[in-house]
């Protein structure tokens, strides 16, 4: 067996691949969040940013391909480790695990991960594969491109509530994976564990609150802004 194969089939190898791909996905989520917050700066700022991204052409296609590959690797290796752990546990039936001491976010990892995967199909259909210059992007008869598409999409309360629930799942997933990947790579001495835990939870909360603020802002803007002006 080659060294690479041996590494990929070892328990630590699989954990490190999950942690490294998870890290890249967290970086993507944070960058995506920063870009999306430009919605608060108005249509010109948000559309200007997305047009700049799209003008990257082939480079953007390569980044998207890389991102999709990282997603597939992360999900594939995670599914493999979960199955192997289940088999190992059923062989050692009734051996109690440490589930009692695991945090809520840790216990929810499989559920939050599955919900995020399901969300991505709807999300890509909503914004990536939709036409940003159709009637769906019009606000009071003016076409606002991708900004208008996002704005109009969140006028639907069912979609907005679904997004907010998913953002809670994203925050939980990020908060557990950030601390877990620091441990997997042994990046910090054990005495910093409580600090890393607090920072990871903080990152998860920031991700949930800031992403959720977008649909919340749009619903308030549309329904109540006229009362404030
Ligand atoms: C309120 C929350 C969110 C909003 C408003 C939002 C908005 C958008 C928009 C407008 C696009 C299309 C970008 C373009 O065509 O230039 C997009 C693409 C995408 N989003 Fe989100 N997003 C949100 C949350 C998320 C989350 C939490 C994830 C990951 C877990 C995510 C993953 C993606 C991916 C993978 C793409 C495709 C990227 C590409 O094709 O380049 N989004 N999002």
Overall mean pLDDT? 90
Q: What is the fourth-level CATH superfamily?
A: Fumarate reductase/succinate dehydrogenase, transmembrane subunit
How many discrete structural domains?
1
Helical segment tally?
A: 9
Shape field: globular
Question: Would you write up a description of this structure?
Answer:
The protein is mostly helical. It has a single domain, classed as Fumarate reductase/succinate dehydrogenase, transmembrane subunit (3 helical TM bundles of succinate and fumarate reductases). It has helices at residues 3-9, 11-36, 43-54, 58-91, 104-107, 109-128, 145-153, 157-184, 193-228, and strands at 138-139, 142-143. Strands 1-2 form a two-stranded antiparallel ribbon. A hairpin with a 2-residue loop joins strand 1 and strand 2 (142-143). Helix 6 (109-128) crosses helix 8 (157-184). The longest helix is centred in the C-terminal third of the chain and has 36 residues, at 193-228. It is globular. The relative contact order is 0.11. The mean pLDDT is 90. The protein binds protoporphyrin IX containing FE (HEM).
